[in-house]
Specification:
Structural class: alpha+beta
Distance between the termini: 107 Å
Radius of gyration: 36 Å
Number of domains: 2
Largest sheet: 6 strands, antiparallel
Strand content: 15-25%
Amino acid sequence: MLTLHTHAQNGRVAWDEVGFVYAQEKFQRTYRTYLETYGEYVSPLEPVRFPVASDSLFGWIRQAMGMPDPSLSKPFQGEIDAWTLASIDGRIDWLAQFGDVQWAYLGNNFFTPLDTLATPEIRAHLEAYFGPPTQTAVETKQGYATPSDENGQFEYWFVVNDSIPMMVMDVRGPFDRGVIVATDQRFRSFLYRMRQSLLAAAMRRTEPAPYVDYYYNFVTEKWYSTGYDGSEYFLNQIRRPNLTLGRPVQAPS
């Protein structure tokens, strides 16, 4: 380094070239040491494989058959493309699959029609679009047991997009507005979009369909028959029904 400094002072090597000259000298010494130790033979590297289009036979088959490319699929953002409703008899299978799910809930916290419309009207649209609920007060409390405040008027149990559980239920029966929706807490941030995606079509594309449910108000300890008869919504206080006979039947208008 002293020699380089002297050369720089003598004008032979400019100051901005000192580092380059030093690095070059160090490389030459390292190279000579390597040759003295290992000779001039260098071991070949392992070949590196570069993928080409013909590597995947399945890719060719998928393209030939017009199958979608999974690499192009978009991550779930709350849009529901398909749904399946659990029937009354399908509750056991649904619970076996989703019984351990940690649920996240969304109530009537906004100012959309799904939050401000009376629950009986929403129930009539759900009946028209999805059919009868998965579960009602008849299934939650058989015999002469008194339903608790956890048992509402109706519940729809879905599997959306083939694998995601989702529920739609009343808030406080026919005395409230909107509905409650729930899903796996992993999808909590998408719950509002899921609700709009699933239920907006039901509200927009259907006319209200007749239905009748039982409802028990645990505050007043009274039973009601509530529903839609095709022309108007009704709410009648009744004596305690015999739930073992099943769901109430819509009387002909």
